[in-house]
């Protein structure tokens, strides 16, 4: 509050006090001394002025003390002619990140053969995921402190730098370390772009623009495997191993889109020196979060493969991770000036449910992306290109429904407002479901649950039509959940928590991916081994664990593998059922636009 406003408020209070406590002409007794009216008025005025000066000083001191901890509003509403090129830049960057993620998995056997990595090649994906998840708590708060554009450019730089180093890797350790660098960049891109969209458009229109990002994600998910499959069919390209070009292409696209973003993305900058901004960072919370995430993610990824689950390495790291989580919670609650993750996100019922839901349905998404292609190849015998083609329904329809989900939220929201004026009964009914994302988000989870259940129909001789139908339903539900879920989370958060809520949601999604893959892999291995006949030799069992079999046991091994995949698909159903149940605990939160905010502020 300005000094002028404080003085005006104090003067009004003084006049009110004088009018309501007007002394009579008989005088008044104060402190045992009889005062005439003019003497009493002089004392009252002097006292009020002293109180006024004290108020100004205290408020000024509070402003000075808290200015360094202030979260700046970085909203930047653009006209349509400037919003479109800015949004195209964001879409291309998002497409590049999605392309990078989804193109590498198909080429891992070729990379392992060329670098002599063997079974450790899975660390390429693990390292990326760890880099993506470990720094997730930072992106939202650092973008509040330093600004959106610097963090976006830094994330793109990490992706470009990591991919170029991966393309020139000469040993597995080099590749894994550089994939972790790429993961840091990819995780930053996904969080910062979602935050930037929330700065550029109002909550009312945010679903429409967030939904359009699904097209970029889906395009990258669909193009990536086909690009990798076409490249690895050749031995060398321009004198280099063909798989290396999988890492050269994303940096080219990223650099072009980053230059365009610098020109067409006019974002509100955060003023202040870098030293002052650095003092705002929660360094203790940062250290505790990194220790916690790394000590939890490493044993989850290596447990059951490189290390036995009961090994000292796994147990000790998990214990340290648990203590680090407790330390992080205490730091954020008691000591952090600007917490990396405000604990109020978990005391708010709506945001807590939405965050847990994001972890659950991301488990299902990650399981689908990994185990569906494996099922098509290991059980049905399709080649990698055919398996990629069978994944198109879930990828393309999730993109289409994601694009349509935003306008659907806007249209249904307008219909709700019109219907509330028609009758009293409709007004009561619509008030219970007034938040327009409900019409997309809740049916989306229901469709995703239905699609997950339809995968239980998959057999060893299932027709392609059944695959297409089940994955179409599931894909449509996925598109109605991902971006509308983010809009719902932001609708339940105050503006100052919008960035950290977005990055926290991504953290929960990453943790869901790691935990889900760990559980699903362990479940598949256990069911597959238990389904094998008792008379199978140990040599064959070891070959099955490595993905190799002998013709004499092919059918038995195929049956066992199918049961393992079926158990993994069955795991998805209760997770999505819990997500659907959680929808009933999310209270209403209307999606308002800038005009709505202006009207509400003037009431």
SSE pattern: HEEHHHHHHHEEHHHHHHHHHHHHHHHH
Radius of gyration: 29 Å
Tally the structural domains: 3
As laid out across the biggest beta sheet, the strand order is 1-2
| Beta-strand percentage range | under 5%
Q: Tell me the name of the CATH homologous superfamily of the largest domain.
A: MFS general substrate transporter like domains
Portion in helices: over 70%
Main beta-sheet strand count, sense and barrel state = 2 strands, antiparallel
Instruction: Write down the CATH class of the largest domain.
Output: Mainly Alpha
Spatial shape: globular
- Architecture of the largest domain in CATH? Up-down Bundle
Task: Kindly identify the CATH topology of the largest domain.
Answer: Growth Hormone, Chain: A
Number of contiguous helices: 24
Specify the structural class: mainly alpha
Distance between the ends: 20 Å
Number of extended strands = 4
Low-confidence stretches: 1-68, 423-435, 596-603
Averaged pLDDT: 79
Commentary on this structure:
- With 603 residues, this protein is mainly α.
- It folds into three domains: 58 residues; 195 residues, MFS general substrate transporter like domains (Growth Hormone, Chain: A, Up-down Bundle); 246 residues, Up-down Bundle (Growth Hormone, Chain: A).
- 76% of the residues lie in helices and 2% in strands.
- The chain has a two-stranded antiparallel sheet with strand order 1-2.
- Helix 8 packs antiparallel against helix 16.
- The longest helix is centred in the first third of the chain and has 36 residues.
- The chain is globular, with a radius of gyration of 29 Å.
- It starts with a helix and ends with a helix.
- The relative contact order is 0.10.
- The N terminus and C terminus are likely disordered.
- One of its GO terms (molecular function) is transmembrane transporter activity.
- InterPro entries: MFS, MFS_dom, MFS_trans_sf.
- Its main location: membrane.
- Keywords: Membrane, Transmembrane, Transmembrane helix.
